[in-house]
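Study this pair:
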Amino acid sequence: MTDAFRKYGGYTAFAAAALLLLAWVKMPSDALRSLVLSALSQNKAGMQVHLETAEWAFPVGLALTGLAVVPRDGRGPGVRADTVTARPALLSLMTGRLAFRVQAAAMGGRIDGDIAFRNRFSAGGPVKAELAFDAINAAECPGLAELLGRSVRGRVDGRLRFEGLPERWPEGAGRMDLALANGLISFKAPLFGLQEMIFTKMEGNMDLASGQLKVNRLHVTGDTLRGEFQGTIRLAADLAKSQIALRGDVDLPAAGPERFAVEVGGTVTSPVVTPL
């Protein structure tokens, strides 16, 4: 009985998936865009989702253009992609769970990876995502300069793993490995006599858990400043007010070989650096 149920239940699931797929293929582009926009907007409190077009991608998948997910209040980082191709994992689809292989041309570079939704028959709720970033232009990341309260330039490469609710991501769990190359970060007030920090590379990794980013390592290499930092960032509902608690060692090549310890406190928008 159990074997028969599994056998014919599998056939039924396959037939249902095939019918849904056929209906999807036949769906007019305007209706498909509305469907995709509605799915992307599920549970995105505080976020605004914009989508220009949605088309069928041969043989099985979606081709999106002009996708943007940004905070409604303009505070905090968002994502903007010129094109996105999403191809479903058919085995997951047959079990009623949505999972996609995603490739995007975004913010001057590329984002590739896998996104799986935990809830059955829904694009809302918790997700599991593994994404790789390549040659992203930091200056094109919507909301980043506003969040930090300063201009940021450079090429971003890295990897991201995340599990949880996207709209409540500080409560989720994950890990991020990032490298910002040939970059510039301006300062609101001079730091060690510098109006801005120009660096060859800033790289590090951090873990997300219990509303906190644990900075395992943050290494800065450049002609004006070099340093190594560790610590935590306690995330706030208003990300600009997130509390920094980092310690590290820095040196200023132009001032000589001496290296000294510093503490970085304050908030993301208004950090305070104190020599120790």
